[in-house]
Amino acid sequence: MPNNLKALIVVLGLAVAIFWFAKPIALLFGDERDFIRRRNVWFALTITAFVSPSFWLFVLVAVPLLIWTGRKDANAAALYVLLLHVIPPIQVEIPAVAINRLFALDMYRLLSLCVLLPVAWNLRRSKQTGESRNLTSMDLLLLAWGVLQTFLFIRPDTPDAIELHDSVTNVLRRAILFGTDIYLPYFVISRLCSSRRAISEVMAAFCLACAVMAPIALFETVRHWLLYAEINSVWGGDLMGQYTDRGGGLRATVSSGHSLALGYLMAIAMGFWLYLQTHVSSKRARLGVMALFWAGLLAAYSRGPWVGAVLIYFVFAALGPRAMPRLVKSLLIFALIAGAVLISPLGDRVAKVIPILGGTVDTYNIDYRERLAARSWDIITDNPFFGDQDAYSKLNDMRQGFGIVDFVNSYAGVAVFYGLVGLLFFAGFMLLGLLKSYGTSRQFQRSDPDLALLGTALVACILGTLLMIGTASFMFGYQKLFYILGGLAAAYIKLGAQSARSRTVRGAAPIA
Hey, which end of the chain has fewer CB within 10 Å, N or C? Predict the structure, then answer.
């Protein structure tokens, strides 16, 4: 407990400073009462988590607080993304009677059940949102992906897996968890964010959450102290990715669950900020927030998110207005920043993990990915359509680290277990959102540059995500943001269609 209290003091001190600094910016995109309420709930949940000796005591406080806040909030989707990583995604099994197990509970599911589920219920009942009942092509692809996950039983990576069999209870559990973990966030965000301000507010709330995490990440790597790690130990959770060194430095995790997830969150926040900063007049604030996200990226010390962040940065520049001058300017800025980092004290640490700069630190990770790709391809070619649900038992030569088979390529993980049909549903869902968002953005390039730029940011973040999930397991922030981005893309596409219809109506000649 003393270590927890010390860590809590550090977290609160840094968070107070960031919330104070960020308030004027946040109010550009949302209501002050919502901001204050969300901030206070963030502090209440953080304090409760650090001082609580049990996860269930935390739940006892969190559930009524989240339900009350969700009902009060004008944009529950913004509340959801702000609190998504208020604590680490520690999973604790719900005690069960008469059956072996129900399912594990974590902060992700608490937010879905307490904040999003009431909103989804209201959306379905509201007569003013009749369109929410209509299924789009993105909806259908996502639901098809859910059906496949529900009815294909993947035997877990455990010694007794071959003895495990599927049951009606397991099928129902998988269906419920797909609805709770995947479809519910997508559905609420895609339907609730029906205006430009609502989408921007969600992006701003996510940036605020990452802005709070960034200085904590920097503190963790400088002081070699993971501030949230003790919570997992006290609660008896099963959270991987605790203290991990790379090149002599600690890889920060904060409340993300893993350093890779932290880096990914920072990269997406940076992509959102590229659009949001166009509404901020203070150059110091624009540069300060961007520096925070890059500090968080460096503290995570993860190569994949670094590459993803660079891709997002250049895609946004290449697809935005005045593309060529902006791209040249972006290249110059990137070259200057990269040069400054390489000649700084951090330069040696950065260079050591980048193979093209002669880095040799953790090159075994690259070798493992190459071997995994080859072994995965063998299984996929043997079971091309619906995959091999017993694949873990055939990959014993790929066990490493904690003795598990680590699918550090989300596409390989999907194709191995669900085949090319599953990969079509999984990737097709996001690719469709990408293409339609790009088309909408180009449509409004001249008539509504701000709406076009909003779409450009989403396109850049989706492309960055599609790259980064190819270098990481599909878990924690990677999984959540994948479907959140899909929801934002669907909302943006609908917004573009509505805007186009309203312009057509206003421009139509009167009928004689």
Answer: C
Nearest to 474 by CA among 401, 402, 414, 385: 414
Number of domains into which the chain is organized: 1
Residue 159 included in any domain: yes
Helices (H), 193-258: 196-223, 229-235
- pTM > 0.70: yes or no: yes
Expressed as residue numbers, the domain containing 302 is 2-129+140-497
Please say whether the beta carbons of 45 and 86 come within 8 A: yes
DSSP letter at 250 equals E
507 is a domain residue: no
Burial 265-303 (b: 16+ CB within 10 A, else e): bbbbbbbbbbbbbeebeeeeebeebbebbbbbbbbbbbb
Burial class (CB in 10 A: 0-12, 13-18, 19+), 364: exposed
> Is residue 318 a contact partner of residue 309, using CB atoms and an 8 Å limit?
no
In tens, the pLDDT along 265-313 reads 999 999 999 999 999 999 999 999 999 999 999 899 888 899 999 999 9
How far, in Å, CA of 326 to CA of 309, rounded? 17
- Torsions phi, psi for 405 (to 5 deg): -90, 110
Q: Is residue 153 part of a domain?
A: yes
In a domain, 508, yes or no: no
